[in-house]
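Recap for those who missed Tuesday's class. We walked through two folding examples back to back. For each one, the amino acid string is listed first and its predicted C-alpha cells come directly after. Nothing is annotated here on purpose, so try labeling regions yourself before you check the end of the notes.
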Amino acid sequence: MAGQAEGLVVLGAIAGAHGVRGEVKVKTFTETPEAIAAYGPLTGDPGGRVFRLKGLRTVKDGVVARLDGVEDRDAAEALKGTRLCVSRAAMGDPDEEDSFFHVDLIGLAAEDETGRKLGTVTAVHAFGAGDMLDVRLDEAGKSVLVPFRRETVPVVDVKGGRIVVRLDEEDEEAEGETA
C-alpha cells in the first residue's frame, strides 16, 4: 500500500488481458474476489482513469471483467499493472466494533508495551504467508517489518492512533543505532 495516492485504498490490480475481446484478469485484495465490484467505479493508479467492472466472474486468483472503453486484447494488456482503487470514505466503517481495514493502520504510532513511542506504521504488506507491518523507527531512522499477528502486535487501537509492538532483539538493536 505504500506509494498509493492519499485517501485511496487498493482493492486489486490488473494482471493482464484475458482472451481476445478486451477482458482483463484482476488480482483482488478483497476478502472475497467478487467484492471488488461492491464499491462502485474504481480509480486506476497511476493515471486516475475511472473503471467500471462489468460481466464480472470469479476465476482462480481473482476475477475476469470487462471495462468501459477497453475493446480488444491490446487495450487490455496495456492496463497490466494498473492498481484499482477506491476512496477510503467509500468503504464505510468495518462491520464489527474492533475491526479495521489495513489502510487504517497506516500512520498509527507504534509503541512498546511501556508506552514508549518506537515509530510509525508506514505500510502493510501482504506477502502471502501473513501480513507484515512496515514500521519506521523514530530513533534509528530505519524501517523494520513486524509480523502482524497477536504475539508481535498485541494491541491495535485505531481510535487511539496507536499499536503496541513487540520487537525481537535484532530489531531492538537497530532501534538503538543512529542514522
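Example two. Treat it independently of the first, because the proteins are unrelated.
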Amino acid sequence: MKIQDPSLNWLNEFSLNRQKLITPQIYQFLQSAIVSVHLIPGAGLKEKEIIERFGVSRTPIREAMLRLEDEGLIEIYPQSGTYVSKIKIEAVRESQFIREAMECAVVRHAAKNKNDELLKTLTRKLDGYQDAVNTGDQELMFLMDEEFHRTLADFCFKPRLWRITNLAKSHMDRVRHLSLTIPERQPKVLEEHKIIFRKIAASEETGAERAMRDHLNYFIHDLKRIQSEKPEYFTN
C-alpha cells in the first residue's frame, strides 16, 4: 500500500510482524513516533491507512489511540479526524517539574551510595554519547542521554522509578528531541553529564544535585528557542 498522507511516510521505514501486533505494541509504536517527532505536532492520523499498513483490525488501533488521547499525545475529533497534539507548554512545564523533583533525589542517592559498578556503567554511557556526537547521530544521542539517567534511576529503585519518570516526561521528550537539532546543544549535554558524574564519583551529594538541577533547568532555555523557531508546533 502506498501511504498517501506525507505525515505517515515514516511507517514505510519499519518492518512489522503483523501477526504479533497487539494493542500495547501498536501503542508503543505510535507513542515512540510522536515523542521522537517522526510524527510532527499537528499531523493528521488516518485510521484506515494505519489499519491497512499494520494489517490488523480496527479494535487494537482504536484502543491504542484512546490511550494516546488520554496521555494528551493525540486529539480525536469524531466528525473531523485524529491529529497529533501540538506541544502544550503547560504539560511540558509540568513534566519538567516532576522530572526535576525525582531526578535530584535520585542523584543525591547515587552520590551517597555509589559503587564501582555504577561508575563503570555511567562511564560507558558517557563514552556512548561521545561516539554519537562524533558521528552526529542524533537518535543515538537521545538514547545515550536516556541511558545515563536511567542508570541512575535503576541504581536507586529498579525498574519502577524509571517507568514512572518516563511516563511523566513524554511531553518534554518531544522538545528534547527537537533540541538535539541545535548543534551547540549536542556537546553541552555531554559536558553536563560529565559534571554530574564527577560529583557522584566524589560523593558530593549537594554538588551532584546542583549539577543535575542545572542540567535539567537548561531545558527551559531549549524550550524557548525551539518555540521561537517552530511556533506552529506549540500551544498554551
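Answers for example two:
The domain at 88-235 is CATH 1.20.120.530 (Four Helix Bundle (Hemerythrin (Met), subunit A)).
Residues 1-7, 13-19 have pLDDT under 50 and may be disordered.
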